[in-house]
């Protein structure tokens, strides 16, 4: 499909630079079949059914942005996928000044050697020393805010809390599963009381999620792979929910993509442990999920293509126009939508 079909105009003032506080007071646009409702996230229990199951991503964001030097050249690196115990694939700023075999000094006794330059300009960075890389990043790295926020203000101490979900446990993401940022213990308690359960899986979100689609046609776009896991117990619970008549509601596109990667054509969800590069565009037949809660996405992005596949492109274009007109806040720290086809 032509990528221009997924474009729309978004005023810059609609981009949220801070999250709502409390988190569950963010606005919630509900698309339920043909109906559209303007609510807040705290209203979520009344929009779902007893027996439904929300599925969250329990990945934890690591301080994956680094600033360093190779000689006199300043080099920026954003880690996006672990490739080994000490090896990470990274997008590099000022990469024309970097060659395979060069060492980058990130300060704080943290350095890495560059190798295996890829077609997209990324490098493998192999970190020196014996300390776990996570400890090195805690020392020298910073929280990797999305570029549309980082371009407008510096990362600060508040982001270390704001950019983690209440489910964050498994270290490895370089971007937050932002739909889950809206949840609080109080909201989860209200959902439990309403008979709406929750489960977790793990998908380590990569920085590729923010990359624009540069191709003119969706068939020409290549997704970056991300690692994910669904264990046997979680797969069994998801299957049991559907067998009992409940719906699987993915919280975030990362949860949705992993569930769909783990689901066979007969609709059965299996354990999963490995990489997924699934790219969902209109025409895709969803097999493992029945709904999605997600934030508002970039124009021409793979995520706007995904929600268009779920609800229909014209429906989503109209919904986003409605959200812009009504003053909804967009992107990672913005408001949410509940999509029930």
TrEMBL record:
One GO cellular component term noted in the UniProt record for this chain: cytoplasm
One Pfam family from the record: Queuosine_synth
Keyword S-adenosyl-L-methionine: yes
A molecular function GO annotation: S-adenosylmethionine:tRNA ribosyltransferase-isomerase activity
Reaction equations catalysed: 7-aminomethyl-7-carbaguanosine(34) in tRNA + S-adenosyl-L-methionine = epoxyqueuosine(34) in tRNA + adenine + L-methionine + 2 H(+)
Main location: cytoplasm
Record's subcellular location: Cytoplasm
GO-annotated biological processes: tRNA queuosine(34) biosynthetic process
EC code: 2.4.99.17
Pathway: tRNA modification; tRNA-queuosine biosynthesis
Keywords of the record: Cytoplasm, Glycosyltransferase, Queuosine biosynthesis, S-adenosyl-L-methionine, Transferase
InterPro entries recorded: QueA (IPR003699), QueA_dom1 (IPR042118), QueA_dom2 (IPR042119), QueA_sf (IPR036100)
Subunit and interaction comment: Monomer.
Family per similarity comment: Belongs to the QueA family.
Role this protein plays: Transfers and isomerizes the ribose moiety from AdoMet to the 7-aminomethyl group of 7-deazaguanine (preQ1-tRNA) to give epoxyqueuosine (oQ-tRNA).
Name of the protein in its database record: S-adenosylmethionine:tRNA ribosyltransferase-isomerase
Species whose genome carries this gene: Sphingomonas aliaeris
């Amino acid at each position: 499909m032509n990528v221009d079909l997924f474009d729309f105009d978004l005023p810059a003032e609609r981009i949220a630079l801070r999250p709502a506080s409390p988190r569950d007071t963010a606005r919630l646009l509900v698309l339920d079949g043909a109906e559209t409702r303007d609510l807040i996230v705290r209203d979520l229990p009344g929009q779902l059914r007893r027996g439904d199951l929300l599925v969250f991503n329990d990945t934890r964001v690591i301080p994956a942005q680094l600033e360093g030097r190779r000689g006199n050249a300043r080099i920026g690196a954003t880690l996006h996928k672990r490739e080994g115990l000490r090896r990470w694939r990274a997008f590099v700023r000022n990469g024309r000044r970097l060659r395979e075999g060069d060492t980058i000094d990130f300060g704080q006794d943290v350095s890495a050697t560059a190798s295996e330059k890829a077609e997209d300009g990324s490098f493998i960075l192999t970190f020196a020393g014996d300390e776990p890389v996570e400890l090195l990043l805690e020392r020298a790295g910073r929280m990797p805010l999305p570029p549309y926020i980082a371009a407008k203000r510096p990362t600060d101490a508040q982001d270390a809390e704001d950019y983690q979900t209440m489910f964050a446990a498994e270290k490895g993401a370089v971007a937050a599963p932002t739909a889950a940022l809206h949840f609080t213990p109080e909201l989860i308690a209200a959902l439990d009381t309403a008979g709406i359960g929750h489960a977790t899986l793990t998908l380590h979100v990569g920085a590729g999620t923010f990359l624009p689609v540069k191709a003119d046609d969706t068939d020409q776009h290549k997704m970056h792979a991300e690692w994910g896991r669904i264990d046997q117990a979680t797969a069994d619970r998801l299957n049991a929910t559907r067998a009992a008549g409940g719906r699987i509601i993915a919280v975030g596109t990362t949860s949705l993509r992993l569930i769909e990667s783990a689901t066979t054509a007969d609709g059965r969800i299996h354990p999963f442990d490995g990489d997924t590069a699934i790219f969902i565009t209109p025409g895709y037949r969803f097999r493992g999920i029945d709904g999605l809660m997600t934030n508002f996405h970039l124009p021409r992005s793979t995520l706007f293509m995904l929600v268009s596949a779920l609800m229909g492109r014209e429906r989503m274009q109209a919904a986003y126009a409605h959200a812009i007109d009504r003053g909804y806040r967009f992107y990672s720290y913005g408001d949410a939508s509940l999509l029930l086809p």
